[in-house]
Each structure stands twice: as C-alpha cells, then as structure tokens.
Amino acid sequence: MDEQTPRTLNHFALLSFTDTYWSMNEHAKAGFHEHWLAGLSALATNFDIYQNTGGNAELLTWCAVNADEECATSDYFEKWATITTPYRHLMRPLDSLWGYTRPSQYSEAGLSAQVIDPLATTRANYLVIHPFARTNEWYALSQDDRQAMMEEHMRVGEKYAEIKKLVLYSTGIQDHEFVVVCETDDLPRFSELVMELRGTRARKYTLKEAPVYTAVYHPAAQTLALWK
Known about the structure:
Blueprint: E1 8-17, H1 19-22, H2 26-43, E2 46-52, E3 59-66, H3 72-84, E4 91-100, E5 126-134, H4 136-140, H5 143-158, E6 164-169, E7 178-184, H6 187-197, E8 206-208, E9 213-217, H7 220-225
Antiparallel strand pairs: 1-3, 1-4, 2-3, 2-9, 5-7, 5-8, 5-9, 6-7
Helix pairs in contact: 2-3
C-alpha cells in the first residue's frame, strides 16, 4: 500500500442474534435481512458479512469507508448507530475492532501484491483477524534493530504469497495498537505461516494478539440466509 493509497477506516463487528430473532418466522427474518443490508449499503463504501466460526457470535461484518476527511470517522459511527439501533432487539453487538490503513514504515513496495484491498469486490474463503500490540521494550529498540527483525518477518511472509494481509493502525484510540487482518483459501497453510512467524526474533516483543476471530466468506445475502 503506497503513499497514494487513500486512507480507509475499517470496522469489524461481531454480532449475535437474540432470542427475539429466533422467535420470528422465516418471512419476518428475510424482511429484516433485506432492510439491514440496505442500511449497510448506505453506510459503507464497501462491506462484507461473514459467518463467524466461534460460538459466541453468528456474524462478523467488515465495513470500509474512505477516511481522508477529518469527519469521516464520526460520520461513520453515527451512521452505524442509526442503522443498528432499530434492530438491537434482533442483534446484539459483542465486539468491535477498527483502525486505519496507512503505509508501513517497515514494508517494501514489492510486497504490495500481498496486501488486502479493503475496497475489493472479491474475497478469499476465510478471514482471520485479531488485535495486536507490541511491548514497551520493542519501542525502546533502535529503528535499525526493529527494521532488521521486521525484514525477517516479511521474508517468512513472502514464502506464503497466497496469503494476503492488512495491518490497520489504532494506536492510542483503542486498547490495542493494530488490527491484523488475513485472507486465505487454505486455513492449514495459514496455520503453518503463523507457526513459522512465532519462531522469528520479533515474536518475543508481542504483548497482545487475542482474541482471534476466524470467519467464512459468502456473499452477504447468502450469509444471512444461513440463519433464516
């Protein structure tokens, strides 16, 4: 992602259906799905709805908006409240992770093919996201030392070229510093990448990397139809 790439705000929400939702008939559920999708279309430049694999929530939503304007974030979350509040009796929010895209101080331009485009119209089969933070000791290191360790980290990533990644920046505005987003069509292969990355020198400077959410992609209407 280069300097010319527009800044985007990316918001991930974990949502669970309530008992009221489950008491509705199939026709009523379909009507709610239609209206909620219309609201998301008006809210975000691009959005996707995933089937969450964890037991605490059925849905994971990913909304992305252009965020070059100072008011973009406040406008987005105001609209998010507007479209979700009427349905709080049907869906309960469980978690929210968000951050901004920007060029990395460590990565090279040649890695751009492995960077996820938040505004893309196609997605891989699986999405894995988690909050991330470094220790204080990491920031006490020199820039050269951090650069060397990150170059080792990136060399490992290059071996798994089919796995795409996006780092969102949220330092100082959430409990974590980054949101790490990965797309893959092969979860066992993704696990191999994670295991290899845990052997790099930068690993010992990891403070936080949980909870991890893994979700399955379907077109939005198809995802919602799983719970009709």
